[in-house]
Design a protein that fits this description.
The structure holds 2 protein chains of 2 kinds. Chain A has 11 helices and no strands. By secondary structure, chain A is mainly alpha-helical. The termini of chain A are far apart. Chain B is elongated, with a radius of gyration of 18 Å. In chain B, α6 packs antiparallel against α10. Chain B has a domain of 153 residues: Tetracycline Repressor, domain 2, CATH 1.10.357. Classes of the chains: A mainly alpha, B mainly alpha. At the A-B interface, α7, α9, α10 and α11 of A face α9, α10 and α11 of B.
Chain lengths: 199, 245
């Protein structure tokens, strides 16, 4: 069995310690203790706590984005593709509550650099939403920021659940996040029907 | 930024009282209307509040020290500690002030004579104009607050609950209510918030009022339906034409 690299251990430690103590209270000493690495080794890899946190964030966001994209591709067309992608997103987050918390709640405590990184990661979800514009009868008349707002609504609802300690129950949120995704494109009536309808 | 004629406030005592009760229930400070940017610094306390907003907007909350805030305010450290327990305490007071301001801007457009959708249009316009005219406070309240700890976050959440209650009034309008989830108002607010934060992070705070039609669309949509929400967005654009659209 191949031992995890020191870098991987540091990234895992960032996820676990931040989930436990919160970003502000986490120290480099906490990270080195949890990872079982020396302070010197830590500073050879990262200039500071924030850099380690951001690297851990990138890894988590990448894993999530790939899972969501894979699920999205299993369906031929929107809105079934959106449903599949959201389902995968909620399930992945529920399986890894510590990563969910890091990715969607704690990022805010790491300042503007983390927030920009976070928003860039969210933009990777744009295709999940943007196909709605071609699908929707009113697509061409919709406001320019429709996909940004739909993503904001979905992520906001998910972050509230996680912050309330309900990360494990996230798959139950599917009807609400699906409605938040579909209604800006289809209107509330058609969205409610699509949410209630067959998969 | 001048107030537009359509948003000047002859709030009815009855409905304004209702809104005041909501604000009070959330234990938010009452609104005030005299905080210009840079505010007239009536006191050392106010100078420190403006300074903490300005410094955190520039350096980030984590990197801001009490020394920075005192230098910016031209106030001694001893005076700082007479007025505030620590950095977080000072930041919290500045958050309270800006939240009071935001609530004040919404109370000013609240009136029983307006249909709900008009009230949403006017409140959104007033709110965006307020943020655009006070960029340091906008950045502090929307970007730095989450980094500063639980107290500021709670305050922020209370402000959101007031806005959420206002949006939920949309359910009282005589529209055909389909299976709209109870989270619709929270989702709409999260959508608007995300758009506003993105605009501030990309350095376009002054252009926030251009987002008005989009925000009117997303907040009225669950209650009025798509056709009417699109019409409300066009109406908002007509009433509040943004300069460079």
């Amino acid at each position: 069995m191949v031992a995890r690299s020191q870098r991987e251990r540091a990234l895992d430690a960032a996820v676990d310690v931040v989930a436990e103590k919160g970003y502000a209270a986490t120290t480099v000493a906490d990270l080195t203790r949890e990872a079982g690495i020396s302070r010197t080794t830590f500073y050879e890899m990262f200039p500071d706590k924030e850099a380690c946190f951001l690297a851990a964030y990138d890894v988590a966001a990448d894993v999530l984005a790939r899972r969501v994209a894979a699920a999205f591709e299993t369906e031929p067309a929107w809105p079934a593709r959106a449903r599949a992608g959201l389902e995968a997103l909620l399930e992945s987050l529920a399986e890894e509550p510590a990563i969910a918390r890091l990715a969607l709640v704690d990022f805010g405590a790491a300042g503007p650099a983390a927030q920009r990184r976070y928003r860039a990661a969210l933009q990777r979800m744009t295709p999940l939403f943007d196909e709605g514009r071609d699908f929707a009868p009113e697509g061409r008349r919709l406001p320019p920021n429709t996909s940004r707002m739909a993503i904001g609504a979905v992520v906001g609802l998910i972050a509230e659940e996680i912050a309330a300690g309900r990360a494990e129950q996230l798959p139950g949120l599917l009807p609400e996040v699906l409605f938040a995704t579909l209604s800006p494109y289809l209107g509330p009536e058609a969205a409610a029907l699509a949410v209630a309808g067959e998969r | 930024m001048p107030r537009t004629p359509s948003t000047n406030g002859n709030a009815s005592p009855a409905r304004a009282k209702e809104l005041d009760e909501l604000i009070e229930q959330e234990q938010l400070p009452a609104g005030r209307d005299d905080l210009a940017e840079p505010p007239v610094a009536h006191s050392q306390r106010e100078r420190l509040l403006v300074a903490v907003a300005k410094t955190t907007a520039e350096k980030g909350y984590g990197a801001t020290t009490i020394g920075d805030v005192c230098t910016e305010a031209g106030v001694s450290r001893a005076t700082f500690y007479e007025l505030f327990k620590d950095k977080e305490d000072c930041f919290h007071a500045a958050m309270e002030l800006s939240l009071a301001d935001a609530m004040g801007s919404i109370v000013a457009v609240y009136s029983p004579d307006k249909p709900w959708a008009t009230m949403v249009r006017d409140a959104a316009a007033a709110f965006l104009e307020l943020l655009a005219s006070r960029p340091t406070f906008a950045r502090m309240a929307l970007i730095e607050a989450p980094a500063s700890g639980e107290r500021a976050l709670q305050l922020y959440a209370s402000g959101k609950r007031v806005l959420q209650s206002l949006l939920e009034r949309g359910r009282e309008d005589p529209v055909e209510e389909e299976a709209i989830p109870t989270s619709a108002a929270r989702a709409a607010l999260a959508a608007a918030e995300s758009l506003i934060v993105g605009q501030i992070l990309s350095g376009n705070t002054a252009r926030l009022p251009e987002l008005l039609p989009d925000i009117v669309y997303i907040t009225t949509l669950p209650y009025l339906g798509q056709e009417e929400a699109l019409r409300q967005a066009r109406e908002a654009e007509r009433e509040h034409p943004a300069a460079d659209r």
